Batch of 2 targets.
Target 1
Amino acid sequence: MDSRTEVRVQFTDQELAGLTALAAGLRGVAEADLSEEDALVAAVEMALTRLIDDFEVPDPTTREQVQVARDDLRAHWIRGAAGI
């Protein structure tokens, strides 16, 4: 069963333009009709990956939280090929 939580996010014009551009780029790369929501999830996945691969999260508990969240996101990926 797919469970979702609605979250309201307010963006500046520049942030919205960036999200729209990310969705457009992902649509081109994935060759799929991806929404801005898909793009936001892909950006979260990429940010978690960058924290794991490119940065040294100093607190071991936080580092594990980041790893588990990224792995769980990937394991339950419901947004098609939106990963970056």
Target 2
Amino acid sequence: MPPLRQPDGRTTNPVIPGFHPDPSVCRVGDDYYLACSSFEYFPGVPLFHSRDLVHWTQIGNVLDRPEQLRLPASMPSSGGIYAPTLRHHDGRFWLIVTNCSEGGGNLIVTATDPAGPWSDPIWAPGVPGIDPDLVWDEDGTCWCTVAGVSQVRLDPSTGQTYGTPHRLWSGGPGAKAPEAPHLYRIGDYWYLLIAEGGTERGHGVSIARGRTPAGPFEPCPANPILTHRGTDHPVQNTGHADLVQGPDGSWWMVLLGVRPGGGTPGWHVLGRETFLAPVTWVDDWPVVGEVALDLPELPWPLSPSPAEEHRDDFEHAELRPSWISVRDRSAEHCTAKERPGWLTLRARGGSLDEADVVFTGRRQQHLSCRARTLVDAAEGSGGLAVRLDERHHYAVEVSGTRVRVVARVGSLRTVVAEQSVPAGPVVLAVTTTEPPSPHGPCTGPDVVSLGVEQPDGTFTELAALDGRYLSTEVAGGFTGRVIGMYAAAGTVHFDWFDYEPLDG
């Protein structure tokens, strides 16, 4: 799993690249665990493990069964699972999260092993709003704090709340969207860390402290303690943070940020990513260091994980945890068991424009990358797509002996290019690369090239499309690009999928 130590010895941010927003982290002994939002994708809440806060390996997904996560087709993209909080208490892992779909709400799941299985949900109907946080005080009372910012006493084993939610400190006067609260007991104080300013360019992190978890809270005079608003820093939208101690007892912050590219206003295409920043303490207040693309040398040994294999030959019945599908993944429509060594997708919706499309992909994690797959569409039609949502995606699709490139941008859908191919399986390919020079104020963030690969490995480009239209600044919402395979009609088989980073 990137990031990897670079050939010159550098270790880089983001520590979990690609669409991995709203990080929540906890430390258990020498191990660190981190969870992120997943929105309309199933399985939900990717979970990572690390020994050094830098190298993270996905060990599973918290909500990986239909009994835990139901996302109806009527739910719009960027709905679904918002902002988990992950904590370890009394020998168990606890995760609280919001399902922002019809019939949803705040739910709690637990596990003794973070790799799973996690319990069925415990619903907490008395917890209002989104971004719920859990903390236990000295006498074992559990407090749940949510965006807004308000708080209520909670029994996390039953979901029962006690009393009515009461307002806490909500950031700077007039600040937009006070959210992502996390409470900590550090030294003599309880600290309330929040995000404010909205998760766009105005995003920031602020903090207050008090003598009890219920306040009253005194704001830090240096608030916001982290923001990149109004700067030319390459990492923007910094916020939604969580604090953790490193192996040597020093303090660190995980947070989300984006890497805009291109001209004005700048477009980020990978979604909100997880970054790491150092924290020091001055007069009992945290001071956040730079969110650097090159991390400082850490005062403890690094523990690099084995690099994730670029290629998946679908030799195992269970898919890797990095594979995600839109809203659900039924064995009837997606299986690696029907045809050994192949992934079989059986169409349900008519195209990527439909909410119930059968799509299985992985998050794009590099600004430049190449994805390829061998497709057998003798019994249907389907292909390889770069997806942001139902209204923003590019795809190269095969049906019979015809391959075409389809682009959907907002209300416009068009076949950009079309070509004949020999009968039989075909290799489809997508690359994302930096736009050609010279760059100007209207230059997009990248170029998405779609085409077919010949038997000798030669890539035949059918279309090269501006990447800005698959960006959050154009499409809106909270997700990032996902590259993967889909079925538009009938049954489509995929022999392998290969994802190769091209930017280090």
